[in-house]
Write a sequence for this structure.
């Protein structure tokens, strides 16, 4: 079994969890916004220098590989790779959407399900305006529809909702509530990206030896980064070409 450091920075949440044998033993999180550069290494140092940890050493680093915030992913993956380089540890990369979906699927004790085989999980990460990064998973965590950047309107996922109950959640789901109107659409509140959600997947990947190349791994951005200029600054340097 393994002692694994888990890092999640794909959204506005900065989250770190230390887990042993697939169980969380300590964690730190900040949900207040994009301050990953200032908080991430601080959280990691606090966890790894905890006196209760004793002389135990981490055996791998797991990091959210996207999709999500370009800046957040760059920070998280860079820190994870730096630790792996320095300590000669394997790198585990996990899809942010899969981790959220598995968390919801494993916490359905209070929900009565007529037909779990007709239940799908749709985690959503905000991609600005009415666009989200999303995928669909079944109750066993298997990918049902690939990861895509979807623009949401009143016709989104109609065919899937006709034959399945779909749970929507994540920081991109709330803005879709008024667009996705169907009896089979269920919006689950208070679900967000977290290093805690990564723990069971990281343990499974570690035991299977499913590692990413520390030298060459790049986050899954899904879309190219586009730098924008605030409107108030456009005319400071003259009329744009």
């Amino acid at each position: 079994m393994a002692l694994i450091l888990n890092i999640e920075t794909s959204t506005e949440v900065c989250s770190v969890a230390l887990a042993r044998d697939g169980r969380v033993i300590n964690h730190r999180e900040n949900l207040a916004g994009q301050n990953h550069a200032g908080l991430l290494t601080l959280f990691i140092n606090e966890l790894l220098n905890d006196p209760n940890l004793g002389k135990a050493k981490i055996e791998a680093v797991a990091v959210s590989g996207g999709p999500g915030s370009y800046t957040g992913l760059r920070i998280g993956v860079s820190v994870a790779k730096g630790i792996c380089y320095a300590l000669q540890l394997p790198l585990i990369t996990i899809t942010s959407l899969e981790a959220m979906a598995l968390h919801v699927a494993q916490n359905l004790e209070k929900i009565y399900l007529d037909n779990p085989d007709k239940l799908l999980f749709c985690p959503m990460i905000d991609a600005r305006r009415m666009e989200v990064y999303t995928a669909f998973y079944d109750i066993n965590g298997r990918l049902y529809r690939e990861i895509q950047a979807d623009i949401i309107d009143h016709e989104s996922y109609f065919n899937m909702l006709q034959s399945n109950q779909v749970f929507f959640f994540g920081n991109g789901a709330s803005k879709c509530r008024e667009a996705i109107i169907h009896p089979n659409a269920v919006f689950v509140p208070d679900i967000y990206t977290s290093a805690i959600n990564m723990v069971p997947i990281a343990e499974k990947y570690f035991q299977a030896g499913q590692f990413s190349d520390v030298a060459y791994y790049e986050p899954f951005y899904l879309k190219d980064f586009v730098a924008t200029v605030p409107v108030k600054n456009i005319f400071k340097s003259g009329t744009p070409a």
In short: Residues 225-241 have pLDDT under 50 and may be disordered. The radius of gyration is 19 Å.
